[in-house]
């Protein structure tokens, strides 16, 4: 049974998302000594609330898996959260700015999982063997905390800032690539703002999925066949404004775009 205080944290963060309102971080308001275990418990309650409302999980996601993100956010340990069906935006579609608080965009490589992956002890090579396809993605993160100001445990409780995702249309077999060498650019209004390669994500994006499998194993859970999983941003995230046209280009995996309306 979750304690009252953990329920309060989940309610606080769900309300902030629904009301599109930034809030002061949990470790400054509700629970200064929030532990990693309690933070994932709060995240679990938040996820359950969404499931109870009829939303469906697309897959877990990894975050804070590159040096660029660690430097940008001041938090340097990988975390996971969950992407839901209501968060999906079509490639080339519109992100309604008024739906969110202070969205930022990230370029990521996603994995469509072909077979269950159960930790502990999973390696990147094992992940690749169980990956049906890889595809490019843009994640739109929208921390519910003011100024994206949070600690490791705050961001875990906030479902790892997960908000919207645009998947690309090009699905390729992972064996066709050296994913760590896949270059990516992130542009706004035709100007390249960030660039990097798959290796920025824990040396190889499949390593991020392996870390996820091993983290889920601590709770007796696994990565499931059919899930589509973001491996974490390759570069730092870019703050979005109304009217922006955002494009992520990935070598061999095509382009993913959306406009901010
Ligand atoms: C946390 C979420 C990070 C990623 O890809 O690193 C994330 C944040 O930066 O607000 O999704
Ligand atoms: Mg991300």
Automatic annotation (TrEMBL):
Keywords: Lyase. Residues 103-260 form the Fumarylacetoacetase-like C-terminal domain. GO terms for cellular component: cytoplasm. GO terms for molecular function: 2-oxopent-4-enoate hydratase activity. Coiled coil: none annotated. InterPro entries: Fumarylacetoacetase-like_C (IPR011234), Fumarylacetoacetase_C_sf (IPR036663), Hydratase-Decarb/MhpD_sf (IPR050772). PANTHER family: 2-KETO-4-PENTENOATE HYDRATASE (PTHR30143:SF0), ACID HYDRATASE (PTHR30143). This is 2-keto-4-pentenoate hydratase. It comes from Neobacillus bataviensis LMG 21833.
């Amino acid at each position: 049974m979750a304690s009252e205080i953990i329920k309060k944290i989940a309610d606080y963060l769900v309300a902030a998302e629904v009301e599109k309102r930034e809030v002061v971080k949990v470790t400054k308001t509700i629970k200064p000594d929030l532990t990693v275990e309690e933070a994932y418990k709060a995240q679990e309650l938040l996820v359950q609330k969404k499931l109870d409302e009829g939303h469906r999980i697309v897959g877990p996601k990894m975050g804070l898996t590159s040096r660029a993100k660690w430097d940008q956010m001041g938090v340097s340990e990988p975390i996971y959260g969950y992407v839901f069906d209501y968060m999906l935006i079509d490639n080339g579609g519109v992100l309604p700015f008024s739906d969110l608080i202070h969205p930022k965009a990230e370029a990521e490589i996603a994995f469509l999982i072909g077979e269950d992956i159960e930790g502990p002890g999973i390696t990147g090579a094992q992940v690749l063997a169980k990956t049906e396809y890889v595809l490019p993605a843009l994640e739109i993160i929208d921390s519910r905390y003011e100024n994206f100001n949070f600690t490791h445990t705050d961001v875990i409780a906030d479902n790892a800032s997960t908000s919207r995702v645009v998947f690309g249309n090009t699905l390729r077999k992972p064996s066709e690539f050296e994913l760590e060498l896949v270059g990516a650019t992130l542009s706004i209004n035709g100007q390249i703002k960030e660039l990097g390669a798959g290796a920025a994500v824990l040396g190889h994006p499949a390593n991020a999925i392996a870390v996820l499998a091993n983290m889920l194993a601590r709770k007796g859970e696994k990565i499931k066949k059919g899930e589509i999983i973001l491996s974490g941003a390759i570069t730092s995230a870019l703050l979005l404004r109304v009217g922006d046209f955002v494009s992520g280009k990935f070598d061999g995996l095509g382009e993913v775009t959306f406009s901010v309306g």
